[in-house]
Amino acid sequence: MRVDEFRKMLEKYRDGDLTAEEEEEIENELEKLDIYQSLLEKEFTEIHTENDLEPNKKILKQSQNFAYMRIGLVALIITLLLLPTLNLFAMILGITP
Q1: Could you tell me the pLDDT band of residue 53, with boundaries at 50, 70 and 90?
Q2: 20: which DSSP letter?
Q3: Residue 26 CB partners (closer than 8 Å, separation 6+)
Q4: Of these four, 6, 20, 48, 77, which has the most CB atoms within 10 Å of its CB?
């Protein structure tokens, strides 16, 4: 069915000016369009979701790596500051071996 024919029949369908046969034909056409629409929506959401997940996974992985690096650096800095400080207190208190 061509677009212009469909529009005319749809207008007549709204107005109730169709014969029973034409009414059945337009209803069948509308059902087909409904099925096509649901298939397209399903495909689009699957494709859209898959494409959206990849950048998010990448961002999450980068954030996780950054957090690990930061925790490692903080642990290293604390260790480097803590050991000399403890040695200094040990020397002051005369507890050195």
Answers
A1: low
A2: H
A3: 6, 9, 10, 13, 18
A4: 6
